[in-house]
């Protein structure tokens, strides 16, 4: 059995992965949303489910909220509820994609009144962040066009800057704005923030409190995502990750499920660039569980990130560097792959037990009876918001 050096375990102990509240709601495709018995009926129950993930893994101490899906009357009360369950409230996600007024854009819209409405929504999110104690405002924009000639690409980029600058000005000293990019969908011809370069250009023009959010599912097939990770870290602008995995488009499947090696390569570059367990680089999941149980789906996800982090930290960096410098291509690749192929699961199970956690969090959660309990207690759970 492989052993994991204490220096690596020390890093793993610090790891924190934020969970998205919407992962606990029902979601699906435009064809069908399958309901799961026991689905949360409100944000309080979503947080209770998220707390289960943390309880069995000690990996997920915060929960991201989405406004308006998680709107409540009293955010102080929601915060106390979370803290009572051993977790805190994290990133606030805005939503400018489910309102008729935003059919042709929100922060980029031609009409100043529509832009102001979208700006006001973000200002409301910042007010909520003060009550929840959240640091990050995450902005993902569904804006773009479907047909060449439909929109003035340059004008939209300029208006985007103005709108973001107004939002940025309202941030508190300890707060940040993270701007997520996505190459297509829901618009199919052009998207206003399609890639890391555009996100970087926009946030760089705002200031130090604005960073890029990298969603691993938002790239064209074949994109070298770890290269983007390296570059953003090098530029000091990688603010957060939305982890998930994809086979075809924005699939939002369990992180590490589609391509564990890609996850390994990404985490390796995070560690190489000093971004691991660094407060500036938030690890989050952005996933939906359409056909599998949601809480175990999230447990599996954070364990996948932990396992690939352990493997990435096993790379013998001194030997790798020597091989790189001497031009020994095959040896460098062998060293890298050796770490990737190391099965760390038995050693991690043992380590978990030594910390008073279950060796097998999936089995421990299954044995707890929690899913049967919520299925009996909760009737009429809500959709995550997608397609609602
Ligand atoms: C959308 O494709 C993005 O991945 C966003 O991060 C997403 O909208 C998220 O679910 C919060 O709004
Ligand atoms: Zn995302
Ligand atoms: Zn997405």
From TrEMBL:
One of its GO terms (molecular function) is isomerase activity. PANTHER family: L-RHAMNOSE ISOMERASE. It comes from the Bacteria. It comes from Agromyces marinus. Signal peptide: none annotated. It holds the Pfam family RhaA. Keywords: Cytoplasm, Isomerase, Manganese, Metal-binding, Rhamnose metabolism. InterPro entries: L-rhamnose_isomerase, Rhamnose_iso-rel, Rhamnose_isomerase, Xyl_isomerase-like_sf. This is L-rhamnose isomerase.
């Amino acid at each position: 059995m492989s052993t994991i050096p204490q220096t690596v375990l020390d890093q793993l102990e610090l790891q924190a992965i934020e969970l998205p509240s919407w992962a606990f709601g029902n979601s699906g495709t435009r064809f069908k949303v399958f309901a799961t018995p026991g689905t949360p009926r409100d944000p309080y129950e979503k947080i209770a489910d998220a707390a289960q993930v943390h309880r069995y893994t000690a990996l997920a101490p915060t929960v991201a909220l989405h406004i308006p899906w998680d709107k409540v009357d009293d955010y102080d009360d929601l915060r106390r509820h979370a803290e009572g369950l051993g977790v805190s409230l994290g990133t606030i996600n805005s939503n400018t994609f489910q309102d008729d007024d935003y059919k042709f854009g929100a922060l980029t819209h031609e009409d100043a009144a529509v832009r102001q409405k979208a700006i006001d929504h973000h200002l409301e999110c910042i007010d909520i962040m003060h009550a929840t104690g959240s640091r990050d405002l995450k902005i993902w924009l569904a804006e773009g066009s479907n047909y060449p000639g439909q929109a003035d690409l340059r004008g939209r980029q300029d208006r985007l800057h103005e709108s973001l600058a107004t939002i940025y000005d309202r941030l508190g000293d300890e707060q940040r704005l993270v701007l997520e990019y996505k190459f297509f969908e829901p618009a199919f011809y052009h998207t206003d923030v399609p890639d890391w370069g555009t996100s970087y250009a926009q946030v760089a023009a705002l200031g130090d409190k604005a960073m890029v959010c990298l969603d691993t599912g938002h790239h064209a097939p074949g994109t070298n995502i770890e290269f983007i990770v390296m570059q953003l870290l090098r530029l000091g602008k990688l603010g957060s990750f939305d982890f998930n995995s994809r086979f075809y488009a924005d699939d939002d499947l369990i992180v590490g499920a589609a391509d564990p090696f890609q996850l390994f390569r990404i985490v390796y570059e995070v560690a190489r660039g000093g971004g691991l367990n660094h407060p500036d680089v938030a690890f989050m999941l952005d996933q939906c569980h359409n056909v599998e149980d949601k809480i175990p789906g999230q447990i599996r996800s954070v364990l996948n990130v932990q396992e690939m982090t352990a493997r990435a930290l096993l790379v013998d960096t001194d030997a790798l560097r020597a091989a790189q410098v001497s031009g020994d291509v095959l040896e460098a690749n062998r060293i890298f792959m050796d770490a990737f192929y190391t099965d760390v699961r038995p050693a991690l199970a043992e380590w978990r037990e030594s910390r008073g956690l279950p060796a097998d969090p999936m089995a421990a959660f299954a044995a707890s009876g929690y899913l049967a309990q919520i299925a009996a207690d909760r009737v009429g759970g809500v959709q995550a918001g997608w397609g609602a």
